[in-house]
Amino acid sequence: MEDEIDLAQYARTVFKHWKLTLGITLAAVITAGIVSFATPPVYEARALLKAPGEDSEKQMAELAKSDSTAEYMLRALADNLTPAERSMAGIKNIFKIDAGQTYFTCTARYPDSEKAAQLANAWAAAFIEYATDVYLNSLMPAAEMQAQIDSSYAFYREAQAAYDSFQLTSQIAEISRRITDANLLYQALQLQDSLSKTGGADDAASLAFLYIKIKSYTTLPDATPLTAGTTAPVSKADVDALVRELEDRSGIHGKTAGQVLMEMNALRAGLEQESQRGSELSSARDTAWSSYLAAIQAEERLNIQRNAMIAPVRQVGYATPPQDPAPSNRLMNIGIALVLGLILGVIAAFTAEYIEKRRPAPAAKQAADNKPRQE
Fold this sequence. Notes:
By secondary structure, this protein is of the alpha+beta class. The two termini are about 45 Å apart. The chain has helices spanning about 5-15, 20-40, 55-65, 65-75, 90-95, 115-140, 140-170, 170-200, 205-215, 235-250, 255-310, 330-360, 360-370; strands spanning about 45-50, 95-100, 105-110, 315. Strands 2-3-1-4 form a 4-stranded antiparallel β-sheet. The chain is rod-shaped, with a radius of gyration of 52 Å. β2 (about 95-100) and β3 form a beta hairpin.
């Protein structure tokens, strides 16, 4: 069948150009071997770091792997690196960060054992300083904190001034007095209406008159006992005189008991509004004072954190010069070169075969040259 692949033909092609295939393969293997054995051994030194807490550890490990940390290390470790190593690629080629479940490590790879340990410890010290700066800078700046305290105190002073002003101009005491006078007038008018209907005063009317009279000029507890026989009979003229006196006192003239009751209810509504306003101003002042105290306490906590200089990460294991170099993977490199050399050799064999087929044979070329040209 035409679609079948003739593997024998492919094998014959490779075998035909075996020298080319073998040559390329040997060249790749020899080159990989020379490079692998000529490269100086690399030593690995590890510094162990730990953050206080699992969440902090993850954050610190991510920070250690970030480009911002690499840029900081490029500046901090510039004196310990050669000019060729002072680049982002050089830093990332020397240092490797591995995050574990509890700790994370910084591995420094360098041809010199002592220098590898020195670089690992230098990286750990520089990272602790950098992480501390990042942690402290994440806190509220001192100037911003002071501005917040000043703002809170200004709000408190404003709220206190508003409350003091209300206290000076408050009508609560005056309205309360007017309500009391209106209530006494209301009771006197009711007594007056009762006497007008009955035409005379009984013991109850006399007691009521005495009660209103006493309440008008002194503070009499509501539970003061008044019994029949303890008061003198009251006349309508006495009640009328008391009504006129209470009208002058309350400022309410010529109104019935029902109208006075409406006046009293209006005064009570005004008293409730005035009391509500005072409560709101008092609450605003207390809230502003609490905010001011909270700002001061927050500043104290921030100062404690700054003064303590608590590092968010610490070094728990120091790198020591390794005795043996890290595995170089020379055999693996040679094996990879062998495979790649074979692939390139096979491709070269088929390319050479294709070129040969496209080139005309010598006899055919000579016959073509000797053939006379047709007119």
